[in-house]
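User: structure tokens for this one?
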Amino acid sequence: MMVSATTSASPISVASVIFVAVGIHQLLSKQFPHGRPVDLAPSNRHSGSPLDPSNDSLRLSNGKLTKIYERVENEGSPLLVGPETIMFDADGTIFTLTQQSKLVSITDIQQKSEDNAAIMTAKVTEVADLGIGRPLGGKFDSNNNCLYFADVLKGLCRICLDHKPKPVVELLASRFQLQDGSWSDVTYADDVDIGPRTGHVYFSDATDIKVDRDLHTGKWDIMYPSKLEAIRGLKTGRLLRYKPETGEVDLIASGAALFANGVAVDAQENVIVFTSTFEGKVMKYHLNGEKEGQLETILTDFPGFLDGIDCSFHSSLCFVAMPAPATPDLKALFTIRPPVLSRFTRSILMLLPRGLAPDAKPYGGVAIVHRGDELSKPSIKQMYQDPTGRDISTITGVTEGRDGKVYLGSLHNDFIGVLDYQ
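Assistant:
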């Protein structure tokens, strides 16, 4: 009887285990729609130097920073809200992309008062309404007065200002075909640069986590996916290339970054330099030469997380935006032992309501780096920062102007910063 009872109970027991396992899997899938946290190898963790609070070289009082505010006339509504990246057309006119999904120009820059040369005002004019979305990085081509820009909701877009009767937004890439024939969505288009030799458009797809609306504010919450990516620890950032002559998009590198962000091409279009935000790395992808197709880390010793990057065509210098400090408590999330405890802690953070997700501390930083060449190794040349974000914070975009100065954009500021580092 005992053998018979055991034999008959066994299938029921197995079925119960399977039922419970499936239920748990479905529950976790709903609780973690973007996947659960994973272990992050030491080589993929932020390893930069601690923040130096004594370095306040980006404060207004040190004379290196100028701020350009909008000169609002006739009680109109302000347009210069969240100018993420600053761009220049072929004539040198300043443009930016705003939180309201507007392309605006910045002209007629004047000193606000005679006794304060650090504060300027400018006329801000709406050039085009780009429709629903949130545009981030962008770059004008050198021939057709067309702006290529990354929109986190739409993908890679283009608007040609000479188009008649008025400029029209073109959606160039919201998805693309992989080599195996399957299709992949461009989930979070982030930054753009244009190859000076081929005219190819290189852009980053930061994460596989899509942007959605914050139900409390009604706004597109573009920060929340980056927070989830940082906590999850899964490298899903990609580099993509769009070829205007054929309309084709191809994948250059996948799993390349823990939030793939800023993108810059060198003057010879031999390499792409880009940032991995939460690894705190500047990376280099070789388009040509002996290392063609290879990806390498060139710089890591930054006190903050990284965002936009721009490289000079006149030197080997690049400029890197640091929107937030890499604080010890954030770094510690990945060093908790045993690893299962780290994953558990980060799982709890991923389950928190959106409003309780960790926020970055106020901070503004710009690093000037040498990307390396045949004669010298990559190096960090200078670090400018406002350690408490009192005068400027959350710097997300860096663009070298014709005057040799670096123009600073931000997701949240209502002004444009200008760094005179020379």
